[in-house]
Amino acid sequence: MKKNLQNYLNILWIATRLGFTSFGGPIAHLGYFHEEYVRRKKWLDEKSYADLVALCQFLPGPASSQVGIGIGMIRGGILGGIFAFIGFTLPSVIVLMLFALALHQFSFYDASFIHGLKIVAVAVVAHAIMGMGTKLAPDLSRKAIALIALIIMVAWQSTLTQVAIILMAALIGLLFFKKKDTTESTFTSLVLSKKTGLFSILLFFLFLLILPIFSQLTNWQWLAMFDSFYRSGALVFGGGHVVLPLLEQEFVPTGWLTEQEFLAGYGAAQAVPGPLFTFAAYLGTVINGIPGGLLATFSIFLPAFLLIIGALPFWHALRHVKAIQGALIAVNAAVVGILIAAFYQPIWTSTITSGKDFILAVILFSLLAFWKLPSWIIVIIGLIGGMLLPYLPS
User: Fold this and answer.
1) Cα–Cα distance between 17 and 84 in angstroms, integer?
2) pLDDT for 84-142, tens place per residue?
3) Distance between CA atoms of 226 and 287, rounded to whole angstroms?
4) What letter would DSSP give residue 43?
5) If residue 270 lies in a helix (H) or strand (E), which one and from where to where?
6) In sequence order, which ranges of the chain are alpha helices (DSSP H)?
7) pLDDT tier at 360, thresholds 50, 70, 90
8) Which stretches are transmembrane (predicted)?
9) Do residues 237 and 246 touch, judged by C-beta distance below 8 A?
10) Which of 243, 211, 241, 229 lies closest to 345, judged by CA?
């Protein structure tokens, strides 16, 4: 019992630390997770991490949050997933709820240190992609898959393009990569049963079907909020930036909040660590105070939770089938290309806008990759560097 409690507290502590320092959006979060869970803690190996990322690319919802939840579940079951989710999500939820309560008094998201934190994300993601690329695209055939995925993703940027790339890579892997990989994974035990997985998937679709009906029948605002946030979290592929238009359509035309309030919260959401889906906490707080913020957060992340619980038991079994292993080899190579494309747009293009930005990014990358400094020190250096950049000569 004491050992289990220590394990849960450890999951919560590490996830909370990541929740306070993981700036830069979903692609950056995957970099932070890779650095902490794979490189440092060795809770799972490169192949297991890549497979989990590939699974979460298939599922609707916030992919990086689902990866974090999945790692928590692999480490400590459903309760471990809950602790991992709370730790990673709570810091940004609290900040965005406080921002909503003090909307007309504070404007902290244009501060110069935020730019420094974005440059930190550039360094962390570049480091993670180099590590993943070496492991997941070691030969010319897999490098070719990554390159093609990168080209297609940059040329036609959309969620459908990402899904199509993954499906095409899986087909290529089924046909050509069945015997390519013989490495074993440390992801060998999972406490979730298939019965639990089926029940979770059933709940996912049940909520999706009945919430709109009951919302219309009762005309109760709290249920309408639950329905709107749940559907937004359940029907979006591609992460937080994709869900923003859905949320705007749900709440601005209905008069629940103004366009100005929506955009102010969006700006604040860019400035805080953790998942962009926590923007829902801001919206819910604007609409119905702290209880509204808590309900919104629960509602928008619930689909992600149900889907990862439902998918993991079957994924664990399927990933050991030779044909599936071949598909995963190709999908993992394609994911490298997708990550590089996401690194270029929007992370690089929106962050590195001057020679000074590039110099700071190179320094941070070197400290992380060559001097092996922990990511939290890199965050602090990047924060200070961001504040000093405006005072340096161009």
Assistant:
1) 11
2) 999 999 999 999 999 888 876 665 545 677 788 778 878 877 887 888 788 889 999 99
3) 12
4) S
5) helix 259-271
6) 2-21, 26-33, 46-58, 63-101, 112-136, 140-155, 159-176, 194-218, 221-234, 240-251, 259-271, 279-318, 322-342, 349-351, 355-369, 375-388
7) very high
8) 12-33, 78-101, 113-132, 144-177, 197-217, 229-247, 293-315, 327-347, 359-392
9) no
10) 241
Residue at token pair 């009945």: 210
Alpha-carbon distance of 274 to 268, in angstroms, equals 12
**Cα separation values, 136 from 36, 41, 152, Å:** 18, 20, 19
Structure tokens at 181: 């990989």
What is the distance in angstroms between the CA of the first residue and the CA of the last residue of the chain?
59
What is residue 346's DSSP assignment?
A: I
Query: What token pair was written down for 271?
Result: 């400035």
In the structure encoding, which two tokens stand for residue 394, read together?
């161009």
Give the C-alpha distances (Å, rounded to integers) separating 102 from 87, 94, 99, 270, 288. 24, 12, 5, 17, 14
| CA–CA dist 89, 371 (Å, integer) | 30
The structure's pTM equals 0.75
